[in-house]
UniProtKB/TrEMBL annotation:
Residue spans crossing the bilayer: none
InterPro entries: Beta-lactam/transpept-like, Beta-lactam_cat
UniProt keyword Hydrolase present: yes
Provenance organism: Geodermatophilus sabuli
Protein name, entry field: Serine hydrolase
Record-annotated Beta-lactamase class A catalytic domain positions: 127-262
Gene Ontology annotations of biological process type: beta-lactam antibiotic catabolic process
Keywords associated with the record: Hydrolase
Amino acid sequence: MPAAGSHTRGPRAARALLTALLLLVLALSDPLVRPGDAAASGARGTEVVAAVTAAYGPTGTLAVAVAAQHTRATGLTVRAVEARSARLLAATAANGLGDRPFPTASMVKLFVAEELLHRARTGRIVLTLGDLATMQVMIARSDDPAASSLWVRFDGAQMVRDVAVRYRLRGTTPPAVRGQWGETMTTANDLARFLALLPVVAHPDDAETLLGWMRGATPIAADGFDQQFGVFGTVPGTPAVKQGWMCCVAGNRHLHSVGVIDQRVVVLLSEVPRTVGYDAARAALDTAAAAIPLPQDR
C-alpha cells in the first residue's frame, strides 16, 4: 500500500525526472554549446546590438548580430546545461535586420575555406600546400582570383549548401546566377552562428587554421582596397576578421565586417545606395564598430 501523500509526490518526481532527461538530451544532441566565459561575462548581447545600431546613423541599412563563440564541453550536469542556456540567451542578439538576406560579397570566402578544410579532414579531397596557400590569401588578403579558382574547382554552390546544412544556416543560399559567388546570400544571424559554432562544428585544428588566417588579415587587400574598416582597424588588438565590399547589386553598395573579439562574435552587414561612396559607407561602419564594448569596458 502506498505511503500517505505518495500520490502527490509521485507526479512531481516524475515531472522532475522528465525535465532532467530533456535537459540531458539537449546537452547530448548539441555538443557545442558552451560560450566562452570572456564573452558571456561582458555586456549583454542586446546591449551591444543597441549601441552599435544607434551609432551607425542614417547612412544606409545595417544588420547587426552578436554571439558568444562556443567551446567544446563534455560531462555537463543538468544544472550546467541550464546555466549555459541562460548565458547563451544573454550573449546572443541581433537587431531587427538579423534575418534579412544580404549578398555576401567576400563573406562567402569563409564558407568556402571551412568546407574545403572539412572535406579534406573527412577524406573527400586532398589539399596540397598550394591549395592551402590559395585559401590563406583568399581569407587574409580577400583575393578574388583565389576564390574564383576554388569555387570552380570544388563546386562553390554545393560548398555553400553543405555549410548551410552542417551549421543549420537558414538564410544562406548559393547565388542565383551560376558562378557569381559574391552574390551568395546570407544573414547577420547566420554569419554569427557560423563563427560562434566554428570551434565545435569544425575540427578544432581546422577552426584554428581559419581563425588564424582571419587574424592575419592584411591592411590592403589583393585588389588594392583598404580593408581597415568596421571591426578591422577600429577594435584594438588582433581580432579575427573578414571584410567584404561590392558594388553594385540592385543599385546598392555593400560593405561588411565580421570579427571575433575576445570570444565575442560581431557581425556588421551594411547596404547603401550606390550614390553613397565607399568613404561615407566606411565612416558609418567605423562609427558603429567603435561602439562595441571592449574587455576593459566590462
